[in-house]
Design goal:
Blueprint (H helix, E strand, L loop, with lengths): L24 H5 L7 E7 H8 L13 E7 L6 H33 L4 E2 L5 E6 L10 E10 L5 E4 H4 L3 E4 L8 H8 L6 E6 L21 E12 L1
Antiparallel strand pairs: 1-2, 3-4, 4-8, 5-6, 5-7, 5-9, 8-9
Length: 229
């Protein structure tokens, strides 16, 4: 994880109140001055459970350590902190407005007849299937092509010659927008979906780095078949 790819300012702004646990990240910060760069080794379990409020990732063993390379840019007063939060909120709002502008420009240019869904996605059926709709626990097999607005393909099961399988309803297997899209299809159907970044790869982009942060993507999906787990 790094802050440079997480947001538009390359930094995080944190309130500093107290240490969340003995040997914590905050204790390390309290030893720093503005402009300092320091590396800390922090106990992974309380770092995730008490500071990040998250479960310990599977790739970190219990009792393991996390190395954190930190640069302290500024120390704010409460008033300065509130001003900085408002500035960052404005950056996010501007970015969201720009993303919506790009979506609308694509819609106006292509005139393809997409329908807008309640979650902000756009849906264009290509062909209807004759089978059932996905249910929780179904093993779903799909072919798909993921593209940007300029038509460039960033991912395709057709190109690699292997359809994708995942279990409906299990977390973390596909992006939220893809799960939502497939729930609208039945077996044998084919459709295209415009998926905004908050339902795609979000503020961090794809793990491969191919899809940048805050990027709308288009998926053409073919639901091949459904089987019980």
């Amino acid at each position: 994880m790094d802050t440079y790819s997480m947001n538009d300012i390359g930094m995080v702004v944190l309130p500093f109140n107290h240490s969340s646990f003995e040997g914590s990240f905050e204790e390390g910060l309290s030893t720093m001055n503005e402009g300092d760069s320091v590396s800390f080794l922090v106990n992974a379990e309380p770092l995730f459970s008490q500071f990040l409020k998250a479960k310990l990732p599977l790739f970190i063993k219990p009792g393991g350590l996390v190395k954190m390379d930190v640069k302290l840019h500024n120390i704010f007063t409460q008033a300065e902190y509130e001003t900085e939060l408002k500035r960052y909120a404005s950056i996010i709002e501007d970015r969201d407005i720009e993303e919506q502008r790009k979506i609308q420009l694509f819609m106006d240019t292509t005139k393809a007849g997409y329908s807008k869904l309640a979650n902000g996605m756009y849906y264009l059926p290509i062909s209807q299937g004759s089978g059932n709709r996905p249910e929780q626990g179904n093993v779903i097999k799909i072919n798909y092509t993921g593209t940007f607005f300029n038509g460039k393909i960033f991912e395709s099961t057709y190109e690699r010659g292997q359809a994708m399988e995942y279990i409906c309803g299990e977390q973390g297997q596909v992006i939220k927008g893809l799960e939502s899209a497939i729930s609208l299809m039945n077996e044998g159907a084919k459709a295209k979906f415009i998926i905004p970044s908050h339902l795609a790869y979000g503020e961090e982009g794809s793990s491969t780095g191919i899809v940048p942060p805050y990027t709308t993507v288009i998926y053409e999906i073919e639901l091949l078949n459904l089987t019980k787990k």
